[in-house]
Request: fold
Amino acid sequence: MARDIIILECTEARGLGKPPSRYTSTRNKKSLRTPGRLEKKKYNPFLKRRTLHRELR
Reply:
Protein backbone atom coordinates (compact mmCIF):
# COMPACT_ATOMS: atom_id res chain seq x y z
CA MET A 1 0.00 0.00 0.00
CA ALA A 2 1.45 3.36 -1.02
CA ARG A 3 -0.40 5.51 1.53
CA ASP A 4 0.52 6.35 5.12
CA ILE A 5 -1.92 7.22 7.89
CA ILE A 6 -0.91 10.53 9.48
CA ILE A 7 -2.16 12.69 12.38
CA LEU A 8 -2.79 16.41 11.90
CA GLU A 9 -2.64 18.66 14.99
CA CYS A 10 -3.67 22.31 15.38
CA THR A 11 -0.75 24.76 15.50
CA GLU A 12 -2.57 27.68 17.17
CA ALA A 13 -4.40 26.08 20.11
CA ARG A 14 -1.43 25.43 22.42
CA GLY A 15 -0.30 29.05 22.22
CA LEU A 16 -3.74 30.14 23.38
CA GLY A 17 -3.91 27.59 26.22
CA LYS A 18 -6.68 25.50 24.64
CA PRO A 19 -6.57 21.75 23.91
CA PRO A 20 -5.35 21.01 20.37
CA SER A 21 -7.72 19.35 17.93
CA ARG A 22 -6.42 16.33 16.00
CA TYR A 23 -7.51 14.74 12.74
CA THR A 24 -6.34 11.63 10.92
CA SER A 25 -5.72 11.59 7.20
CA THR A 26 -3.66 9.72 4.62
CA ARG A 27 -0.83 10.80 2.37
CA ASN A 28 0.97 9.26 -0.57
CA LYS A 29 4.42 7.97 0.45
CA LYS A 30 5.92 8.35 -2.99
CA SER A 31 4.57 11.78 -3.92
CA LEU A 32 7.17 14.36 -4.93
CA ARG A 33 4.68 17.19 -4.29
CA THR A 34 4.72 16.80 -0.49
CA PRO A 35 8.27 16.02 0.66
CA GLY A 36 7.90 17.78 4.04
CA ARG A 37 5.14 17.82 6.61
CA LEU A 38 1.62 18.07 5.33
CA GLU A 39 -0.40 21.17 6.31
CA LYS A 40 -4.16 21.61 5.93
CA LYS A 41 -6.75 24.07 7.17
CA LYS A 42 -9.23 22.20 9.37
CA TYR A 43 -11.94 23.22 11.85
CA ASN A 44 -10.93 23.46 15.51
CA PRO A 45 -14.05 23.06 17.72
CA PHE A 46 -12.30 24.51 20.79
CA LEU A 47 -11.46 27.78 19.00
CA LYS A 48 -14.63 27.65 16.86
CA ARG A 49 -12.81 28.52 13.63
CA ARG A 50 -10.63 27.04 10.90
CA THR A 51 -6.93 26.86 11.78
CA LEU A 52 -3.76 25.45 10.29
CA HIS A 53 -3.10 21.80 11.21
CA ARG A 54 0.34 20.29 10.70
CA GLU A 55 1.42 16.65 10.44
CA LEU A 56 2.89 15.06 13.57
CA ARG A 57 5.92 12.76 13.39
Notes: The CA atoms of residues 7 and 26 lie 8 Å apart. The chain has one domain: 3-55.
